[in-house]
Amino acid sequence: MELMMTPLEYRAYTVFDERIHEMDIVAKQYLESASADMHHLIPVDVPTDGNCLYHSVLISKNNSTVTTSELRVRTIVELITNETFYSNMYANVVGPIDIAVKGVCKNFTYSELYEICALCTVLGCNIRSVYPETNFHCGMAVMNNIFTPAPSVAANSEITILWSHAWDEIHARAVNNNVWSPNHFVPLMSPSMPHESDRSNELILNHKTPEKQKLKNNTPIQIRIPEFQDSPNRRFRADNNVITDFTESISLKTRQQNYNKGKTQQETRLEQERNRHRIRRANQTEEEHQI
C-alpha cells in the first residue's frame, strides 16, 4: 500500500516517433471533428482492452517499469483518498463517485472522467482532454478541458488524450441504436521535427560562398569565384561564325527564289506551247472541212 502512495516520477514524451509509434486511423477521423487547434496532432494506436487510458499514459511516459494494473490501482487509491474533492468537482457531471470507484476496481474496464482527473494527481501532470463533436451537447463541454492535479500536487508536464472509439462512426452507431458514445482513449502527440537529412538538404539549398579560414588584418577573406570572360579573338571568331551563317542563309534564300522564278517561267512557256498547238489543230480541222 505504501508503494501505491509513493509519487511517480513522470516526464511526458509527447512527440510522435514513427519508429516506435503507429497512428490510429480511426481515431484520426474522430480528431478531425474535434477542435481545429488539435488537428495537427497525431493519434497514437494503443490496445483496445479496456485499459486504453492507462496505455495512453504509459506510451506518453515511455517507461516499461510501470504497468497498466499499477496505474489503475494508484487511481483507485487516489479516488478513495480524496473522495470528497472529486465528488464535489465532478459528481454533477459523471454521477456518484462510489459507483464509479466500483467500476474502476474491475480490470479491463473502460475509464471515465473521474479516472482522468485522478491520474493528474497520480502522475503530477496536466491532462488535456479532447472530445470530438460527435453527438456533442452543451453538457459535454467539460470534456474539452485541461485537468490539473489536486491542489497539493504541482504539475511538471502535460499530455493530451482523445476520447475515441474502437470502430468508425458508422459501425459504432449501428451497434448502439444510432447513438455514438466513446469507448476508447488514445494519446495525441506532436509531429516529429525534420530529420537530420532534411536539415542537410536545407543547408545545401541555402549554400553560401565559403570563407577562407585565414585572416588578413583580422578580417575574414571571402573566396571569390572567378568569372571568366571570352577573349577578343574568341569573340571575333564567334562574330565571324555568325556572319558566315547569316551569309549562307541569304544565299540559300536567293537560290530558292531563283529556282521558283525559273520554274514559273518554264511553266509559262509550256502553257504558251500548248495554246499554239491547240490553235494549229483547230486550223487544220477548218481546212479539212473546206476540202
TrEMBL record:
Q: Where is the composition biased (Basic and acidic residues)?
A: 264-274
Report residue spans for region: Disordered: 256-291
Taxonomically, which superkingdom?
Eukaryota
- GO terms for CC? chromatin
Instruction: From the UniProt record, give one GO term of the biological process aspect.
Output: regulation of transcription by RNA polymerase II
* Matches recorded under PANTHER family: VERTNIN (PTHR16081)
Similarity comment = Belongs to the vertnin family.
Per its record, how is this protein called by name?
A: Vertnin
* Organism the protein comes from: Adineta steineri
Native organism taxonomy? Eukaryota, Metazoa, Spiralia, Gnathifera, Rotifera
